[in-house]
Amino acid sequence: MSRMEEIKKSNNSTYGSMLRIDITCIDGHTLLWQSQPLLGRLPAGNLLLTAAILFCGGTYSTFPQFAAFLGLDFISETTLHNLQGKYVYPVVHKTWQAHQASLFEMFKDQPLVLGGDDSAGYSAKYCCYSLLEVLSNLILDFNLRQVTESGSSVAVERDVCEAVLQSVASKGLRLSCLATDCHTASTALVRKKFPDIKHQFDVWHVGKSISKKLAAKGKLKEVVDLSPWTRSIVNHLWWASKTCDGNPEILIEKWNSVVHHIVDKHH
């Protein structure tokens, strides 16, 4: 007799992404086979899928279709959120706290040069403000807030910026310089509540603002010749910022020299 003929009963069942097969032979012996190991009573694949979806920045909606095309069973959306809330989020939070503590220890005696920026637009529901240590390119802290908590996108950017600066300052770090976008709310915040921080505008945001203004002016008939110069003018701003050695007077002189290039006067 073949092995298949000796099987009296076979029952297949799935638990999310895991396949379980219960087999009973003609002599009454039972065999259990599972396609993946268990973590307690939890199929390991279900937890790994939950973590992978979060870590790749994806959402649940596209993954069941992907699995269906491959003929794979998949976890439900409810299972995904339950596992993320119970296991993945707490581990991520604990790992981030440990990593952040090590960063604070590393930078505790240094004057910090920081860059701050938000990820929200004027129509966004949430605003996430991140604080970057510029020389090491490491994120020191971030703050996430719903726009409705502050009333507007402008107000929420100010509030999350204040929250993240207060958080870092409360750890005893020396905040020396902060580069942000050109929003007046950020300027007023730093001037009033963090007067010891040297506030500067990020070159990328300044260049973007100049580019928009030049593009708008270039549409006017009387200054149509300005349009081809837009990219070169923004590049000149980057060059002036990079070669001024942190001296604002030299920066202004080099920036103003762009006028001479445009009219082809070099001396």
Short description:
The chain is 45% helix and 23% strand.
* Topology, number of strands: 10
User: Biggest β-sheet, characterized?
Assistant: 5 strands, mixed
* Secondary-structure element order, N to C: EEEEEHHHEEEHEHEHHHH
Fraction of helical residues = 40-55%
What fraction of residues sit in β-strands? 15-25%
Strand arrangement, major sheet: 8-7-6-9-10
Large-scale geometry: elongated
The number of distinct helices, counting runs of at least 4 residues, comes to 9
Tell me, rounded to a whole number, the average pLDDT: 88
Distance between the termini: 100 Å
Please compute the radius of gyration using only Cα atoms: 29 Å
Unreliable residue stretches: none
Give me the secondary-structure category: alpha+beta
Description:
- The protein has about 270 residues and is α+β, with helices and mostly antiparallel strands.
- The protein is built from nine helices and ten strands.
- It has helices at about 45-55, 65-70, 75-105, 155-170, 185-195, 205-215, 230-245, 250-255, 260; strands spanning about 5-15, 20-25, 30-35, 40, 40-45, 110-120, 125-135, 140-145, 175-180, 200.
- The strands form three sheets. The chain has a five-stranded mixed beta sheet. The chain has a three-stranded antiparallel beta sheet with strand order 1-2-3, with no helix packed on it. Strands 4-5 form a two-stranded antiparallel ribbon.
- Strand 7 and strand 8 (about 140-145) form a beta hairpin.
- Helix 1 crosses helix 3 and helix 4 packs parallel to helix 5.
